[in-house]
Amino acid sequence: MVKRYELSAVQWRRICDILPGKAGDRGRCGEDNRLFVNGVLWVLRSGAHWHDLPERYGKWKTVHKRFTRWSKAGIWEKVFEHLIDDPDNTYVMLDSTLVRAHQQAATGKGGTKIRLWGVPEAD
């Protein structure tokens, strides 16, 4: 049984060969790419902070650092480009109710206009 937010075996087989860190790749091998990807999906789909990542996925800081490296290297774009052709791509979607705006986003474009004391207004 697949845990909530995790990839099924079929979904994992679709992307496992295009991810870096496999045996035979140059550089360091990832300890467990599937566990890492599931950890990233847990954070993104749950809307939780990285430091709330369950311990079964590893240290949150390590997962976050690896996520950032993969983002900068374009790995996630490559994964999504590979998956976009799938007619049943429900695992790629995120629920928009999880997207939250920062509390300061409510002030509108340009933020509030604050006038400094003692500075004359411009005409």
Give the distance, in angstroms, between the N- and C-terminal Cα atoms. Answer: 68 Å
- Number of helices in the DSSP assignment: 4
The helix/strand order is HHHH
Strand content: under 5%
| Main sheet record | none
- Briefly note the structural class of the backbone: mainly alpha
Mean residue pLDDT: 76
Number of strands: 0
Shape: elongated
Catalogue the unreliable spans. Answer: none
**Rg of Cα set:** 20 Å
User: What proportion of the residues is helical, as a percent range?
Assistant: 25-40%
What oligomeric assembly is this protein in?
Answer: single chain
Number of domains: 1
Short description:
The chain has one domain. The chain is built from four helices and no strands.
How would you characterize this protein structure?
By secondary structure, the protein is mostly helical. The protein is built from four helices and no strands. It has helices spanning 9-15, 33-46, 60-73, 75-83. The longest helix is centred in the N-terminal third of the chain and has 14 residues, at 33-46. The relative contact order is 0.11. The model has no long low-confidence stretch (mean pLDDT 76).
Main traits of this protein?
36% helix; elongated; mainly alpha; 123 residues; single chain
Write the layout of secondary structure elements.
Elements lengths: L8 H7 L17 H14 L13 H14 L1 H9 L40
